[in-house]
Structures
1.
Amino acid sequence: MKRETFVILGIVAGLILWLLLAGDYAIARSNRAMIYALLALSFSLLAGRLGWFSLCQTTLAGVSGYVIAILGAQQGLPYAVVIPAAILTSVAFAAAFGVLTMRAKAVSFLMLTLALGQMVWALSFQWVGLTGGYNGISGVRLPMVLGFNLNDPRIFYVMLATCTVLIFLGVHRLYRSRFGLLLLGIQENEQRMRALGHPVYLARFTAFVLAGAIAGVAGVFLVYDMGIMSPSPLSLSQAVLVLTAAVLGGYRTIWGPALGAVILISLQTGVAQYTDRHMMVIGLVLALCILLMPRGLSEFPWTSLLRGRKASTAST
Amino acid sequence: MNLDTLIFLGLNGLTLAALLFIMASGLTLAFGLMRVVNLAHGAFYLLGGYVGVQVVQETDSLALGIVTGGMVAMAGGVFMERLLLQRVRGLDLSEALLTIAVGMIIADGLLAVYGGSPISLPLPPDLRLPMDLGVMMYPTFRVYIMIAALALGVVFWLVMTRTRIGAAIRAGVDDRETAMSQGINVPLLFAGVFGAASFLAGVAGVIGTSYMSLGQGLDVRVLMLSLVVIIIGGMGSLKGAGVGALITGLVYSFASGYAPQFALFFLFLPMTLILVFRPQGLFGRTT
């Protein structure tokens, strides 16, 4: 068997073991961590492959959450309609944002996605008739299927873990495919890729929409996990939380976003017992990461540190 | 539609445009000079606002409050630039991300110190009274805000076109390397511009509190509006900041008056049109 198969089996075994050993609260937090891992993956797909740091991936997830809350909880449409509609809405928003940001470079992309994302956030609490404003829309629940209550944290964990593993595997394949290499090439030297005849804009746009679809899936899980949809998941602090998770774990590797999300959610859970200032902690973590290890934990030069050599300074 | 409402909304739009110009002018200059976009600008607005309003409340002196608010924000800006941004100089994205982190820390710290309830600016009675503008009565202090923004625009224009510092800044914006080889100390110039920009953000925080009350989340809203201004106007252009502020302020004010639920959507419209047809902004240059 290949090494890759072993790693996948190991991860699946670990996830099952955790389900059997952990308490209810730990499982609930793990669910949240997996959702943020998906969001961080959506962010990293753009940051690691294209050098595009997006502050609107949580917005795309939030849009999908609102569709679930409005069509599902308020209008009572069937789940088979609501969930695809939610993901499609995220994809549509991603396509629109993608067109607007297509020509932007690193820093202007960051600014644009911030402005676009915060506009949707502001709309979500100004448009009270549709979104319920600050109070949001409550009572977002999954159904009973074959006698299983899908809202039970452990059953939810199984569904979420399955999706998360599959999506991470898919993105892993994507990174190694021709398309993934093309994205890296575009980040490296856009002009050369264009001269070689590659459709640069189309490739970027596709990556943006794909990342939007992942965010949409994360949004579906997020809204069912919270049971209520309010503007807070669309706020800038959530976008920064996701960005910090990806930067902490290392957005250029496949497992970096998951690692970062797990560490950050654990940290948040731990800090919440002592203080309300968790955003300050997130800000500190982000600042320290950028100053000390801009490529994150997964690409930190551990080995050269052990040998006592000066860690080579990496660039973002 | 009645005419009085129209004029009132127009004047409100001009007040907002004045505040946005004070915010965005520094932001856009710093960007033009060093390609650094300060995403903690909104947090500096909040910092200057809270501290300045507290000084006004305790000393009853508006001028002292405005200066203190500006100075505190400037101290924050200079500290951030000297202690943090310098370490990652040249890495545009790292600098932007660091400013986000600093903004988060400041905003959360202010929430801890001042609490979440909205605060407004206690104005002296003669500034609170409305002033007769010929067409209608309008709060005196808002008229002064507009005059201040105009004056700031004139000062900026004079400094940029008539002084050696202005010439050095223009040279740095145009071509950083050549300017440096001519003996212009661009990093020092940048620290100065950055400090001045933060000062203006703090001042805007104090005087803006007469227009929008200080509260949780205001930093992000103000930052978003400032970003829209410089995206519309073109990054690095002072003229662009002025025109962008006018468009943003007026559109936002009229939209809030006639379709409050979609105020931001209407703001989104001019920005989208400009991004599609002129991605570098109205007065921006393609690089």
2.
Amino acid sequence: MFKELDPLLHSQLRLAVMSLLISVEEAEFTFIKEKTGATAGNLSVQIDKLKQAGYITVNKSFRDNYPLTQCKITKKGIKCFEIYVENLKSYLKPA
Amino acid sequence: MEFNEKQALQVIEEMISKTKSDMKDNSFYYLLWGWIVFVAAITNYYLLEFTNFEYHSIPWMILIPIGIIITIIGGIRSKKEERVKTYIGSSMKYIITAFWVSIMVISFTMPMGDQWKAFYPTFMVLYAIWLYISGGILKFKPFIYGAVLNWILAGVCYIWHDSGVHLLFISLAVLGGYIIPGYMLKMSYNRNVQRA
């Protein structure tokens, strides 16, 4: 029986962002951009969607006069990621 | 293009392995302090045993402040460059602080209380605790072996009171605990970078 996958996480870039954030405490936008290989524009849009859903928090500040964006996964985000991975397993089990 | 379940799993695996390979090269501070203590101890030993120079502990007075300055500058710089905060990194900060506060308390109060007999072995016990914890967290065996070496040498020093021997033992302790494992850590980091 296939379980429904969270459409918000079942997208390449958003899933990549969440997978990065699940294994760290906090990461900068530039770090996520480098690791995912995404363009700044596309990444901003996807990060915003995750933020709207309450999966991550985004903290904008300045460091040495440069804008600094830090992202952190929320408890809700962790829970949803775990459910997504659990549901994903149902698709990958040999029939 | 449709994003299927297999690709989803690949994305998760790839991203998690990318955060793992982003481990920083921590060997610099192990090597810096390893060499500082090693050179200071050996020079102190030479001045004590083979010359009549009254201020034989002067190498420590020169080298330790240099080490502290480099460490502070390096710490500020790496904080600025830090783009990702890991759970390991955050726990290591607490351990580093506890270690440095303990080192400072010993460095200032033991000489004031004229407790030279226990001075160097107490350092070695602290080194051993630090090496054992960081070896465990970083999953790096050479630090664990270094910790055992420091515990053994500290034990011998607590029993055998001889200033010259203590200086030779502390240089051996940092050679086996910091310098050799420090170079091994650097090598393993370079290998990981080449592989990534």
3.
Amino acid sequence: MSSCPVIIATGGANLASLIFALKRLGNEPVVSEDPKVIKMASHIILPGVGAARDAMSRLKATNLASLIPNLKQPVLGICLGLQLLYSGSEEDNATCLNIIPGYASRFPKKTGLPVPQMGWNSLTNVKRTPLMNGVRDGDYAYFIHSYALPINEHTYVTANYGESFSAVVQYNNFYATQFHPERSSSVGSLILSNFLNI
Amino acid sequence: MKGVQFRNHRVMGDIISLASRYRDEGADELVFYDITASPHGRTVDRSWVNKVAGVLDIPFCVAGGIRSLADAETILNLGADKISINTPALERPGLIEDLAKRFGAQCVVIGIDSSSENGNYTVYQNTGDPERSRSSQRSTLEWINEVQLRGAGEIVLNCMNQDGVKNGYDVEQLSKAREICGVPLIASGGAGTMAHFKEVFTTSKVDGALAATVFHSAQIKIPDLKTYLIKANIAIRPPEIKD
């Protein structure tokens, strides 16, 4: 079965690796910020690299900030895309889409760990969700981020970087990974494949 | 975490097959580096970046001859995750700020070639060409501080005295760098045995170790190295068993 995934153009984000990853799974993803195209998609991916405030400005300018919370199809936020689903971020006090309650905060300096976290880290407390079918505790994924979400009832996978944070979240039809599945080897590929099968 | 460095890439097919081989063997990141790009003031042909991005499902970095925002944008748009700047950053340190503001610190890697002379560490530039390689007159540790303030997201410290000698990483220098480096620090230069990797992770607390020769020659196999490091209690992604 083929699906028609649409990647939302959030600006500044490097989409080539994500597009290649979806193509390797046999899909022809479309990149768009047109509400009509996004409404018709079978699956929607909200990527994001950069600052939360910039990404939100762009989503507001294209009227997507009001559309995204009302989408009924499976939506996958990646990295900054996860943080955008929440109420807001400590980064420049950005207000985000407010689909999931909570605020992203910067990794504290006291842990002494380099910020951003940039590298492979293991996944822990993997809970049952269609997105994580076949993914096990101890599998590794590739992270690049300075801000993270605390753990709450919507957390389906945790990771630890000086402190525990949400690595995967789910709320109704909204799924999100703090790591980059498109750069997380076969584990990441499995997660993308799971998403497209939801 | 560990990287494989490519130097003086040959024909296209070689790059793709090598990249695929390291991907399958479980390399955590690849660095593609044209050491001849900077000294001659030219940039490498970039079309291969997109082909590499098509086969890799791990992050990769491109180094060599990136002198402007436009150079960086081209490479990132072709699918690279990071760009590494060396000599151009020494010539115009403001380039680091420009890149970090435009693309985010996470994709701005600063490569530093450092030479140890009479107990002092000095940054060298144009190291790709023996005839033009020279001291930049900058102290390595001061430069490490400066590039972080300017927005570097990662530092690759290549210890020149060890480079190609296979006597082990310069753990003394790397430990001094670690003390002042608040962003990911990657060790480069000197890997000859699996014990050298263990030493640099445990002693210098680096975030990654880069090597080229020992992997290209298959003197060290990545799955064996990973198994060895995991036994030594170093947190690292396990080797993958692929069909």
